[in-house]
Design brief:
The protein is mainly α. It has four helices and no strands. The chain has helices at about 1-20, 20-50, 60-65, 70-85.
Length: about 90
């Protein structure tokens, strides 16, 4: 386990150093902005769904929840946790 931890630290150091290179740093920043936008868009869609879910029939809610794969469920859970912690 220590070997994996060491590799992660080295990789993190490389990324941190790469952020200081002008063009690469800009690409990292653009990537972060894009990821934040996608998260924001996803949360808005989830918020709209939850607002409207009161009026939905239970069958439609069940169909939606059953259509989610494991990644979708994890994503929803982490976003809800993030919203709860950060307000």
């Amino acid at each position: 386990m220590k070997n994996g931890s060491l590799e992660f630290e080295v990789f993190a150091d490389i990324l941190k150093t790469a952020e200081d290179i002008p063009y690469i740093g800009s690409l990292f920043k653009l990537g972060k902005v894009a990821a934040n936008y996608m998260d924001y868009h996803f949360v808005r869609k989830l918020h709209f769904f939850l607002e409207q879910s009161q009026a939905l029939e239970p069958e439609k809610k069940e169909k939606f929840l059953n259509s989610l794969d494991k990644t979708g469920i994890i994503h929803i859970s982490s976003m809800c946790f993030h919203m709860r912690v950060n307000g």
